[in-house]
Amino acid sequence: MHLKISSLLTGRLFRIPEYQRAYAWGTRQRADLFADILGVKESGREHFMATVVALGRERRLIGADEFTTVEIVDGQQRITTLVILLKAIEKALELEDRTEAKIKREIQELLVKDDSHSLVLLQTNHDTSNVFPAYIRDGAIRADQAETAADKNVISAAAECEAFVAQWKTHSPLVELVAIIRNQLSLIYHEIPDEATVYRVFEVLNSRGLDVKWIDKLKSQLMASLFEYVEPGTRREASLEMQGYWRDIYRTLGQRGDLGDEALRFTGTFYFVHEPRRIMGQEDAVADLVASAGRKVATIAKVGADLRAVVQAVGKLNSNARLRAVTKVLHARFVATAIMLRGFDTATEEALLNAWERVTFRIFSLGGADARHKVGEYVGLAYRIYSQNIPAKDILEDLRAIGADYKIDKILYGPEYWANCYEGWAEELRYLLYRYDEHLAKIAGQPLSATQWNKIWLDEPSRSIEHITPQSAAANYTHELGNLTMLPPRVNSSLQADPPISKAEPYLTSGLLGTMAVGVSIQRDGVWDENAVRERTLRIHDFALQEWK
């Protein structure tokens, strides 16, 4: 049915269950919504927004009012943003103005029902920090409690909606904005009582939709297959199992939603019949995974379980700062994911990932190869690791073979290789200096400063790279490796362009062994000059020659 927003939000309680994607809209999508509203203001015409698909669940009585509880299958991003926008408007309406006070109460009653608890929209999926309900209930933007990407998106949405409302208020009454949202924004609403039908409706409506992620389309098609092909006696249990897989998938993707695209492509490629030479695209991955799922409950469930495992491996890879720093090259990450999926014992997995690190960093970071290199070799190896269960010794041999034409002594042709390690090489430099700190810690027989390095990993690498002789000195060795060290971002920014002699004390107390060694050198010699830079460059150069043989 075709509904205006006022009709859509009346008499319904919207719920987004755990097996649905969390809030993922960013600034661009919200800006488009604001532009649509401004367009309605200019034209005066009704604006059709989108289609919403919901699964009708139950009727509820709150006070004297009856509500239908529905689970949103499609359209949750737009409805969530509209609810946040309504809260931003409600906060800005003035109690002193009689008309605004009346509308303020109406919005309050719409968003939070008569029992002072039930919300018009409840993000039951992954919102463990209660960022969304806190904003809808009391208007508090609790940025300090944001734990996931979805939390941060909600915080950003609240701030941007409040900024839009404040800007509107400078040139037009808020009553007009409320009227536009209530009466001139509309959508097509499908409320379906049958779970067996709702996923097919979603699939048909979004078969060509650009806004819906392919991983969400896969979920809908797998769920639809369960209800279409699995006998009723098994269907409910299988449906709950599948919902559990997707709950876990979206919880993992709550940290980094874009990782779902990568995981989907990896999973589809693992399902190739023959050894592939490239990683398939998302659309092809969905088609192949749906075909592999077929019509049997066991094969449908297997696709869900396998995707969950890949998503969790990709999430684990991304959450490991050291592994994440090695490369952004997709086919190289494919191999690391395959190793993590095999279930090797801890020692074997660490040995394989260390070998993968050395080869991959040597090829793409030290060797300067771009993402077009070694595609077939990496993809084929990942496939053999996961789909053919090749033994660990074969994986090591294949990794050595992949890196055979990138010999370290040919790549690092001398100290002049390190003349500019800052511009365009910040992430690689951070990783290199981290590994050098590990090396120094091993020699000293003491642990690495995990606290300080965590601060460094969590920020942009350039914010932690310290020029010992500052850039403003315009020395020809400013960006040379030996003149660069690491400091936590706040410490780094506090030193600004101070001369090296005044930085020695902060270096000594930094807790970072490579940086502390620089502080010792400055205090001992009373100077940091070109010779000191070259000596340090050579030390790190010799370390790299040994580490990436």
Question: What's the short version?
Answer:
This protein is α/β, with parallel strands linked by helices and about 550 residues long. It has helices at about 5-10, 25-45, 75-90, 100-110, 130-140, 150-170, 175-185, 195-205, 215-230, 230-255, 260-270, 280-295, 295-320, 320-325, 330-340, 345-365, 375-385, 390-400, 410, 425-445, 450-455, 490-495, 500-510, 515-525, 530-545; strands at about 1-5, 10-15, 45-60, 65-75, 120-125, 185-190, 465, 485. Helices cover about 60% and strands about 10% of the residues.
Molecular structure report:
With 549 residues, the chain is of the alpha/beta class. The chain is built from 25 helices and eight strands. It has helices at residues 5-8, 27-43, 76-92, 98-111, 131-138, 149-169, 174-183, 195-205, 214-229, 232-253, 259-270, 282-293, 297-319, 321-326, 330-341, 346-366, 375-387, 392-402, 408-411, 426-444, 450-457, 489-495, 500-508, 513-525, 530-547, and strands at residues 2-4, 12-16, 47-62, 65-74, 121-123, 185-192, 465-467, 484-486. The strands form two sheets. The chain has a six-stranded mixed sheet with strand order 1-6-3-4-2-5, sandwiched between helices. The protein has a two-stranded antiparallel ribbon with strand order 7-8. Helix 3 crosses helix 6 and helix 11 (259-270) crosses helix 13 (297-319). The radius of gyration is 28 Å and the shape is globular. The mean pLDDT is 90.
